[in-house]
Amino acid sequence: MNLQSRNGKYAKLIIFDMDSTLINAETIDELAKAAGVGDEVANITNYAMNGMMDYGDALRKRVAMLQGLSVKKALEASDKMPYNRGVGELMEQIRAFGYRTAMISGGFTISADRIGRELGMDYVYSNTLVIEDGVLAGKVTGPLTEHDSKEQVLTQIASQESVNPGKCVVIGDGANDIQLFKKAGYRIAFNSKPVLQQYADVVVDGNDLRKVIPVIEALNNDLL
């Protein structure tokens, strides 16, 4: 499959963040509510997503606070997280234009695998919460545990698709997407924190993903 657009400016490969981009929630915050530490974890998430705390440190600190949460309650919490409006329409239009899709999330397989499957993502990358005896052990493993991990995964996916990562399209919302934005060719800041917007080619306010469709349409027609 030729993923290059007609003039070769952008590849037909779109990389999505998950939390607060595809879904209207931060997975770790919802798990923290179920564990009874919602406020404490949400404060750290806010610092991390606004670039005021190292992402890797913030991730490990928050995950440690989930220790003891049962897998049953974790699944119940993750299954309740809603999609952002218009996600179905956006994905349908993207596929009609012939784009391949990937979801690179600092969230967890406990939700990312299901969401990626429901949305028909071609690639899904996320972290794994360590489970011991049916409860969360307060530890995390996976490919997206540091501030520059998304950039590295983008490079890997682009290599598999035989495209230049500097020609890929990315959509994200927080500080942990900065390195991803720096690497990509066209950057869409959606429902985003101010810290990310300075790296974006376009800023889409609100949480209705249908607003992204005209941007993708313009990219597909080589108008941007």
UniProtKB/TrEMBL annotation:
Example GO molecular function: L-phosphoserine phosphatase activity
Root EC class: hydrolase
Cofactor entry: Mg(2+)
Gene3D superfamilies: HAD superfamily/HAD-like
Taxonomy of the source species: Archaea, Methanobacteriati, Methanobacteriota, Stenosarchaea group, Methanomicrobia
GO biological process: L-serine biosynthetic process
Protein name stated in the entry: phosphoserine phosphatase
EC number: 3.1.3.3
